[in-house]
Amino acid sequence: MILWKPAIHRGKMSQMLEALEFKTRIQNGSIRLPDEYRQEFREGDDIHVIVLIQKKSLPKKDIIDELTENPIQVFGMLSREEIYSRYL
Q: Which of 14, 36, 44, 72 has its CA 20 to 30 A from that of 58?
């Protein structure tokens, strides 16, 4: 998919940039170009590469999740005074 072809003017010279967008996977440390774009490149071409990595985010845990995984051990019952004396 060709996104745009902006011209960059530097004095009297003009360079044409062509942007392509595609999804691929890194294989053995290399970025594989889809077959439909390979004819766009020649051996020795200078290219500018920007890589956007899609990270898989884990759902955030709330206090209920934390307590379910790590329950608080309480031995015996605490009185109201004992409960609130920890915060004074």
A: 72
